[in-house]
Amino acid sequence: MKTTLTDGSPVTADHREIQPSGMQKAYVVLSEDERAKGFVRPVRRTYVHDKCGVATTMGLALSETYARDPNFYSGTFCCGCGAHFPVGPDGEFKWDDGERVGS
Questions:
Q1: How far apart are the first and last CA of the chain?
Q2: Predicted structure pTM score
């Protein structure tokens, strides 16, 4: 599967560099062509961290990547905590509809 950064540019070696905000310099997503093939889950943009209760809303390319391949990411960012945490069946995040992120 072809990947890019959220702005459509090629993936760079330093994209995981953590910025003062706690977010990475850039995030990898499935390419626009890959996302255009359709989704296996609904496109959801907002999730809530179980630990702090804060909702985080992602950009569309990130949301569509989750919808195309729910297991694409092993972790996600919490705006409340300013850090990344694991996702999946045992993860700490739920979509705003209650389903566990990455499951």
A1: 20
A2: 0.91
Residue 64 belongs to a domain: yes
Q: pLDDT digits over 24-50, tens only?
A: 999 999 999 999 999 999 999 999 999
- Looking at the DSSP bridge assignments, the partners of residue 83 are 78
Residue showing tokens 């990130």: 62
103 inside domain? no
Q: Is residue 73 part of a domain?
A: yes
The confidence score (pLDDT) of residue 41 equals 94
Q: Are strands 75-78 and 83-86 parallel, antiparallel or unpaired?
A: antiparallel
Interatomic CA distance for residues 19 and 81, integer angstroms? 14
Number of domains the chain is built from: 1
Tell me if 101 is assigned to some domain.
Answer: no
